Amino acid sequence: MSETAPASAPALEPASAPAHLIVGAGPVGTALAIRLADAGERVRVVTRSGGGPRHPLVELVALDAADRDRLAEAARGAWVVYNCANPGAYPQWERVWPPLAASILHAAEASGAVLVIMGNLYGYGPVDGPMRQGTPLRPSDHKGALRARMWEEALAAHRAGRVRVAEARASDYLGPTAPVANGLLPRYAAATLAGRSATVFGDPDAPHSWTAVDDIAATLQVLGRDERAWGLPWIVPSNPPASVREVLTALGERAGTGEPTLRRMPRWALSSLGLVVPVLREVGGVVYQFERPFVVDAAETTSAFGLAPTDWSGLLDATARAWHDRAVAAR
């Protein structure tokens, strides 16, 4: 969110204040906006370009979300502000995330809105056993440390009475709208569903939790309206773990492309390439997630709010169709 809105951008009228302000229109922000709008809620979506889902109750606004004053103006009157931003490739995180997160926190505080953060699992670092609500944050690389710091700063504001905040923590996305650039699995599938082999990092047979995009949106919606959620992180309900090979095999069966051919890149090769390729260097910091079981336990979320994961078979059906069409189109 580094581009600024044009100087001539019109002021946002207080009378048009939405019930919900969503920063970001990636797969999660888009799914959340549609979900809220379909429920009859007025939504404002903020992106650099002004793009986003088309719906009569969704207003699309182009502005730089790191601009504190403009974002606070956009959030005026909102009940809930959702941080669904995606600052781009890993190498940009340290530069882009801090001012962006601070601006979104400020907008929620200035408007009196609840702040709901779309988080991830990086802050936990390598763990033995499932990640739960009470699992301590022990990041092992700078990306995890950054996400942990963002949560701790928001939580400090909550405890000081400045804002009400909750965070949803999801594993790697699965679903028809998850883009190729969002995670390793879609990248692998882009190859295997096009009939090519895929080079994978880590152990393709290690158990791994996958989170449906729609389940993330459902969790965010609940966290914004239920005061029991505030002041805490919540694991998004996910289906029982399945390895990379198992998921790619299931997608291939549904798409009719057969058994995937996977080639495992050794850790030493990833480390060597990371010396000259910044993105691979960043992947090396989180590849532990695919070298050992990486599993979530959302029992607290399900118990508190009655949320359950999307049916696994139906999720794979929809994902296979969409990802296969995308892979064929990209040939």
UniProtKB/TrEMBL annotation:
Any Pfam family from its record, for instance, is: Epimerase
Q: Gene3D superfamilies, per this entry?
A: NAD(P)-binding Rossmann-like Domain
Residue ranges occupied by any NAD-dependent epimerase/dehydratase domain in the UniProt entry? 21-220
Task: State the InterPro entries in the record.
Answer: Epimerase_deHydtase, NAD(P)-bd_dom_sf
Superkingdom of origin organism: Bacteria
Q: How is this protein named in the record? A: NAD-dependent epimerase/dehydratase family protein
Gene source species: Agromyces bracchium
